[in-house]
């Protein structure tokens, strides 16, 4: 089973504007959709498309937290949830122009509460068995300690055969790498390196040397770099697709890593799947997952 952990989930509101966001002006939208959001939730939505079950593990609070839980119930998601003692689950607004450029306005959400995180960790641990995969992704609540994800990685990895995948940024990524997760999916910006293939290949190779088994560095429209303990770092350009909304492409890649971990895919198969998922996700609206049919089409056209 795959468990996706999102400590600071959201209700995503996606708007479309004709000419892109015009600061200081009245912007009229011609389309709006609302989705359950947060990076781990996006991963679970993509896994469902691939036919893989997952359990969404979240912390919620306030009226918008209740709203999020209802949305997840409506799509038939299996959920493990805990409640923060105060605050409100955040609202994230995505504004996309016809040129495919998306502007994100993300809310803050609740403050960090240690007891709530301890409770969620215990609920997940009691479910984990050999061969399970845990995906930890997104930003934690405000005020969370730098080693919050490192502690979660260590806790889940104590259970024999459990693989942990990390998709984080800033100090949470830096500290998390010290805990040696099974796989990571950072961006060049998150790693504070140049967004080019040579820099990404060098960094991915270094991360593997530090004990991580698989590393996928996403580079937006430039492409991505993949490396593993049994495969040297390789680069692929992004697939040539019409981008409707780039939000969620990285989460689709993370879903690919989780699917590959569960199915025992080779490094080549893993990289191809992740690139196809990212391309298909770019074509969708909001944080809606890509269709399985489109992912299959892009896999067939992927250069080998």
Which structural traits does this protein have?
alpha/beta, 4-stranded mixed sheet, 10 helices, single chain, 9-stranded mixed sheet, about 300 residues, UDP-N-acetylmuramoyl-L-alanine:D-glutamate ligase, about 35% helix
- The average pLDDT score comes to 91
CATH class: Alpha Beta
CATH architecture: 3-Layer(aba) Sandwich
Q: What is the N-to-C order of secondary-structure elements (H for helix, E for strand)?
A: EEEHEHEEEHEHEHEHHEEEHHH
Described by strand count, sense and barrel closure, the largest sheet is: 9 strands, mixed
- Return the structural class: alpha/beta
Number of helices: 10
Measured between the Cα atoms of the first and last residue, the distance is 30 Å
CATH topology: UDP-N-acetylmuramoyl-L-alanine:D-glutamate ligase
Q: Which word captures the global form?
A: globular
Evaluate the radius of gyration: 18 Å
Biggest β-sheet: strands ordered side by side in the sheet: 5-4-1-8-9-10-11-12-13
Helix content: 25-40%
Please tell me the total number of domains: 1
The named CATH superfamily: Ribokinase
User: Regions with pLDDT < 50 over 5+ consecutive residues?
Assistant: none
- Total E-strand runs: 13
Summarize the structure.
This protein has 304 residues and is of the alpha/beta class. 37% of the residues lie in helices and 25% in strands. It has a single domain, classed as UDP-N-acetylmuramoyl-L-alanine:D-glutamate ligase.
């Amino acid at each position: 089973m795959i468990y996706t952990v999102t400590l600071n989930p959201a209700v995503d509101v996606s708007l479309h504007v004709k000419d892109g966001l015009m600061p200081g002006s009245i912007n009229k939208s011609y389309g709006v959709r609302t989705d359950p959001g947060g990076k781990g939730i996006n991963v679970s939505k993509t896994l469902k498309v691939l036919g893989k079950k997952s359990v969404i593990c979240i912390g919620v609070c306030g009226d918008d937290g209740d709203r999020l839980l209802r949305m997840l119930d409506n799509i038939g998601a299996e959920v493990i949830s805990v409640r923060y003692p105060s605050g409100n689950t955040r609202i994230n607004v995505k504004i996309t122009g016809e040129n495919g450029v998306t502007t994100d306005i993300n809310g803050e959400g609740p403050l960090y509460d240690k007891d709530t995180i301890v409770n969620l960790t215990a609920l997940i641990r009691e479910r984990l068995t050999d061969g399970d995969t845990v995906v930890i992704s997104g930003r934690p609540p405000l005020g969370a300690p730098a080693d919050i994800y490192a502690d979660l990685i260590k806790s889940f990895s104590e259970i024999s055969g459990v693989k942990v995948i990390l998709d984080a940024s800033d100090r949470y990524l830096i500290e998390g790498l010290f805990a040696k997760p099974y796989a990571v999916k950072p961006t060049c910006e998150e790693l504070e390196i140049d967004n080019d293939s040579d820099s990404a290949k060098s960094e991915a190779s270094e991360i593997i040397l530090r004990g991580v088994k698989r590393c996928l560095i996403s580079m937006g429209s430039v492409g991505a770099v993949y490396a593993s303990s049994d495969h040297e770092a390789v680069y692929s350009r992004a697939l040539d697709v019409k981008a409707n909304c780039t939000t969620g492409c990285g989460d689709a890649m993370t879903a690919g890593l989780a699917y590959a971990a569960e199915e025992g895919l080779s490094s080549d198969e893993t990289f191809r799947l992740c690139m196809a998922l990212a391309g298909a996700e770019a074509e969708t609206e909001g944080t809606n997952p890509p269709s399985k049919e489109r992912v299959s089409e892009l896999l067939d056209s992927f250069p080998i």
